[in-house]
Amino acid sequence: MGAMSREIDNLKPAGKLQELARAEGFVPGGASGQSCMSGNQDRAETAETVRALLEDLIDYAGLFPPASLAMSHTVANYETYLRSRWNWILGRLIVPAARLGEFETAFDRLPPPRPESAPVPSRISLILGDDLNAGAELLRAWQDRSAREATARSARVESVEVRVGNPEAIGRAVQMIPAGVTIYFEAPPECWSECMAAAAASGHRMKIRMGGETAEKFPSSESVVEFLRLCVAHRLPFKATAGLHHPLRSVHRLTYQPDSPSGLMHGFLNLFLAAAFLGAGMEPHRAVQLLDEDSREALRFDSDGVNWREARLGRRELMAARRETSISFGSCSFTEPIDDLCSLGLLSNRSATEQAIL
């Protein structure tokens, strides 16, 4: 990625989010703006509601576009984020199955953990490629090695992510992939209903792609709400991927290239709140309006829940939605969404850089 790639190549693993954020192509700025908190409530009063929405929410996908970091930097970043003050927001590290060996090498080369630091396992979500059988064999080999080898720090594969073209492919995948690993299925919109029925019957989950490096890869709000509606109807957990760097729907550059075109991106607050409101009985047409919401003043968090305009969702309903349906989203940057959340007043109003130094 041009100048950014050169900067990445020259970067040594560091203990500051600022240096790692530069490698992601973004430097936190600690921007200020209108708060999403209700009235005069301070952050402490809304902390539990914000935590219910954000906990475990962001899967780190630094290997993938538009960041496209080297494996060594991605693994070092994830290790740093695990020990930062924002680690409660961090989910899994996204790794392609074909690069598991490369991951192991980078993971083994991390500096030894500090003696006073409690071990924190790295949690992996594995992307299986088109050759599902080969991917499943790589996973089995990884599990065998992990069971035999004891190390100072550990990593475990919690989930795998698979593209399927029809419900029959879901059945085949379940047979191939080792038991005990959660599977997220990404299916084309034209067979969402049938694939969701198959995924629900198998006890696994779904995945939706929310964008990409070109404008046409961003699905319409109506399409996204249909996906969410079906997930709620099938009581089916889901994760999202791509195009969700920012909390609210807004226009941004589609890549980190200086000459990148800009486009309208979905917001991850919009997405996960829409899923929660749908689960609480909101009509789909209203959920489309929520997905299209671009005003930070329309969202008001307080100690007991969140308001979107005149609609209200209690904290317990939000917690239930996150636990039962709305699991996480993948982002090639961890610092970018954190800094935006700071600017909205949902996290500390100081920059991620200032407060995440180890």
How many separate domains? 1
Radius of gyration: 20 Å
Number of beta strands: 13
H-E order:
HHHEHEHEHEHEHEHEEEHHEEEHEHH
| Strand order, sheet with most strands | 1-2-3-4-5-6-7-13
User: What are the segments in which pLDDT stays under 50 over at least 5 consecutive residues?
Assistant: 1-33, 350-358
- Please outline the major beta sheet: 8 strands, parallel, barrel
Shape verdict: globular
The residue-averaged pLDDT reads 84
Structural class: alpha/beta
**Amino-to-carboxy terminus distance:** 29 Å
Strand percent estimate: 15-25%
**What share of residues is helical?**
25-40%
Enumerate how many helices there are, as a single number.
14
Summarize the structure.
The chain is of the alpha/beta class.
Essential attributes:
358 residues; 8-stranded parallel β-barrel; 14 helices; 3-stranded antiparallel β-sheet; alpha/beta; disordered N terminus; disordered C terminus
Folded structure, characterized:
The protein has 358 residues and is of the alpha/beta class. Helix content is 40%, strand content 18%. It has an eight-stranded parallel β-barrel, surrounded by seven helices. It has a three-stranded antiparallel beta sheet with strand order 10-11-12. Helix 8 links the parallel strand 5 and strand 6. It is globular. 46% of the residues are buried.
Layout: helices, strands, pairs:
Blueprint: H1 3-10, H2 17-24, H3 43-54, E1 58-60, H4 71-82, E2 90-96, H5 100-108, E3 122-127, H6 132-148, E4 155-163, H7 167-176, E5 182-186, H8 192-202, E6 205-209, H9 221-233, E7 238-241, E8 250-253, E9 262-265, H10 268-279, H11 284-291, E10 299-302, E11 305-308, E12 311-314, H12 315-324, E13 326-331, H13 335-343, H14 352-355
Helix pairs in contact: 3-12, 4-5, 7-8, 9-10, 9-11, 10-11, 10-12
